[in-house]
Amino acid sequence: MTSRGTIRVPGDKSISHRALILGALADGQSRISEILNSADVNSTAGVLRSLGVAVPDLSESFAFAGKGLRGLTAPGSTLDAGNSGTTVRLMSGVAAAHPFSSRFTGDESLSRRPMKRIAEPLSAMGARFEFAREDGLPMTIHGGELEGISWNTRSASAQTKSAILLAGLCAGVQVTVIESERSRDHTERMLTSLGAPVEIDDVAVSLSPVDSIAPLEITVPGDPSSAAYFIAYAVLSGREVEMPGVCVNSTRTGFIEAMMQMGARIDMEDRAAVAGDAVATIVAQPSQLSDLSIDPAAVPSMIDELPLLACVAAQARITLEVTGARELRVKESDRISAVARNLKAIGAQIDELPEGFIVRPGPATFAGSVTTEGDHRIAMSFGVLASLPGNAIDIDNPGCVAVSYPGFWDDLKSLS
């Protein structure tokens, strides 16, 4: 009988960011339990403190008072987003609707990431942006009275969509966001649960003006992106893994669906609902996998897990084709290049494409060194391969996982 391991993955990163931001904008006291206490989420907490919100140190359960939709105060110093794109992009929407200037900075990796995608719609609403160079950080936003907008993002970006929705929320104006494909929808789900008037029509989301939102009472569900690494481990290692309380929002389960299309045995049990989101216990079992070509329309629902999917395909010695994933070029690293370079470095077969890659069957075991470029997703993806018997893989910066999953290496080791 296959042995079973149990992993309780940390709180969802996307929901954790949004819980802090919406709690800060609420009227009344919010209580958050099981938040992800990672570097990225602490960046959001730090920015909110600089804007006058008394966010306590993140812990298993804590409460704080919101300032209302237009109650933030001018920062006395630069707003440091660290490595967190979610922090700077979502908080840009909030800052744009307040009558003061905010200067955002970040680490070297974040400073290279494009901010034009949020600057364009927020400028069209009436905010003014200044960039120190091109469209990266440092970035100064001069906020104030904003106008309503209907904006086609021409892509699928939850961060851009959320920036516009939060700007409209704080400014008290009507906003509509139209995407090419539906991106993860935690912002609109949480807004709806707090009483905001949100309408969804296929790939269009509209928010009508509202005077206030209710405070939060939320237990943050487990992060499906974090769970993905243990799903992969279970499928490849021969050990069944159970993960209770994981968010299984339909815009976040693309990796699970792709794995099942390849033949993975994955069950979702004990379904429930938290803050408008579906939650379940995920059970993944050892499986034989087969070739797969990913539909570009499915890419947004698994964008963070595509490096892992490439590693799974290499270990399973199958063909995997991914196209329509140009967003991977502008993550914490150029993840298309990083995946291709590192898989080749350990002996796998992969062709790099302009907007994706093709993994082909190669050797049964891998050896070599992985250069993460400080990207947590690259470190964890190759960490799964490194944990499997027969592989000898060295990862140059294992500590970079702290931005999303500080306990990752301990949890992975507990299964071996």
Task: Please describe the structure with a list of short key phrases separated by commas or semicolons.
single chain, 416 residues, alpha/beta, four-stranded mixed beta sheet, 13 helices, globular
Provide a descriptive summary of the structure in words.
The strands form 6 sheets. The protein has a 4-stranded mixed sheet with strand order 1-13-15-14. Strands 4-5-7-6 form a 4-stranded mixed sheet. With 416 residues, the protein is an alpha/beta fold. Strand 18 and strand 19 form a beta hairpin. The longest helix is centred in the middle third of the chain and has 14 residues. It has 13 helices and 21 strands.
